[in-house]
Fold these 2 entries.
Entry 1:
Amino acid sequence: MLSLKGRTALVTGASSGIGRAIALAYAQAGACVVINHLGHAADADAVVAEIETAGGKAFACEADVSRAADVERLLQQATQALGPVHILVNNAGIIQEKPFLQTSEADWDRMLGTDLKSVFLLCRAVLPAMVEAGSGVVINIASELGILGRAQFAPYCAAKAGVIGLTRSLAREFAPHIRINAIAPGPINTAMLDAEHMSPEWRAKEMDIPMQRFGEPEEIAATALFLASDMARFYCGQVLGPNGGALMG
């Protein structure tokens, strides 16, 4: 099994879905894990309890990662609780299906704030300590739609494309001692794909991939575990795509 023993990981949006799966995988591999959430205290506490029951260490912290002040507080509390952050996973994200001409400025700002600005803010907050330590890992959760594009998802596609560009830029700037990579999942079986958020037409399109199913959060967590481990020490600025064949190459 891959080991993260002796390391502390900060996972944003970790109270459910992909973030939760990553947090649990990291804890199982021996890492201490900071569980960031926004408005989901009970779910975050449940993740902490699951980790602690299994003998691990975790700490839940509510913060709006699209706000600089919240990010600074999150990092301060995380460091006080579990020590310096060795692994940062920028997972927090939202999605919205809406025709472009009906997309408001507020829609745009909310999407770009949560899905892209948060990555900038967290990296800006965490990287100085990693630079001083001479090591660290950053994993940004993008999306295959940031490469493919999709009608009626313009802000989301733009934000995730931005995550990919930011990942590659930072990877060049902070290599060789800090490894920065991204994961661009395909359709994953989380609340973001339920009927409340997605139309039946959109879900049908997402099912029309070679694997003929949605992925599971644990399948993304496996990729995140690999990238965080020493097995991925030669990966730099890469975008790994566990996507069921939705995007090849």
Entry 2:
Amino acid sequence: MEEGRIPKTTLLAFFFIFLFSTSFSTPLQQHQTLIVVPFSNPPTLKPVDDLSWSESQTSESLDFQNTLSLPLQHIDALSVNETSESLFHLRLQRDELRVKTLTSLTTTTAGGGGGHHRNGNNNATRANAKDFSSSIVSGLPQGSGEYFTRIGVGTPPKYSYMVLDTGSDIVWLQCAPCRKCYSQTDPIFDPKNSQSFSGVPCGSPLCRKLDVSGCNTQRKSCLYQVNYGDGSFTVGEYATETLTFRGTKVGNVGFGCGHDNEGLFVGAAGLLGLGRGGLSFPTQTGRRFGNKFSYCLVDRSSISSKASAIVFGESSIPRSAVFTPMVTNPKLNTFYYLDLVGVSVGGTRVPGISSTLFRLDAAGNGGVIIDSGTSVTRLTRPAYEALRDAFRSGAAELKRAPGFSLFDTCFDLSGKTEVKVPTVVMHFGRGADVSLPASNYLIPINSNGVFCFAFAGTTSGLSIIGNIQQQGFRIVFDNAGSRIGFAPRGCA
């Protein structure tokens, strides 16, 4: 072979590599269609029996070998004399309080929304290891969270609505006797009527896991307290109880039996903490259900017949999911951190948005969490401004409208049935690209056809991926694999 000449076989190899990389790569889509559906009247009430089930329906009368699902019901349908606009205003007010709560938690690493940040062992019954699921209901008017599920508590089970919250660890509900209890939809749980209720002794390992605990010296039972950033709190006895999900019973779950519950809690009986901490429901039941769960949140602004479920166990992971690693905050183990490395608008990476803007430092500051209770995604200010400017440029042909509340980029789409809008893709670590449907980032704010770009900036350093951007995806929390997954069209 002559010196300096490349063999023909090598040239052919280079040619085919180039051909494959240019011809078969999939470029990001530049535009997609937004169906313009302004606010209408709140959904009419549908039978709530779809979200409930008889207490006589046990595992003998239901088949739990397969994943179960029930239709999702908007809590809007249960609201009386409320308009869509008023509900939306309340939603944004709650959202602001929620973000303050989460932000304060990450700066103080104590108290607040989750209240429990220590690793713990499984405390759940391990017999009859099967997957189980429960329906989810959107909870717009509630102050403590946005989505709810119906769970049986005690033996025999008494069914109640409970908030789903990935930003909290503790499981709690209102209990009789009430010193101060807020109004809830179902009768207040009375532990005296349950055969499986058991108080936790003072000084026991379970009691010691609480960040804020005390002791009832007369009964020698453990006491708990959880304070939330908006001033709400719950105080009472810490105990174990059996929870029932559509007939599947989960025994010995540590929970707070609240006798003094004050603040913004309305409607639901309590809270099902889904965080990463040692006292959360997924952690307590992890060994039984594979340390994994997933949920899908439907479009809460539309009247939809799509079903949704929260699923625990192997069935919670769809094959279409793409995964990114969980990031661990050494100072706070409640939240689900993940690695956001960039955002594309109109098929092009937004300049100025890189992983350095979302880095979690050694002190536990910064980072990005995904949260079921926050509605609008917050990005640290430089990243948000770069994203907003890129979207404004790509949507220059749309008629602008004045800003609204926390939204500074709005459009007047009145008289239109559909419009072309730039695509938005969120890029996560390990190549997990999540392409958002148009309705996940342009949302109606009134009945006059005004839509706003559903992102906002924050100066706190903590970025939060909210549930508007999550809607329609099945979000997988695989604690066993230390990863978070996204599956499009996951509510089917």
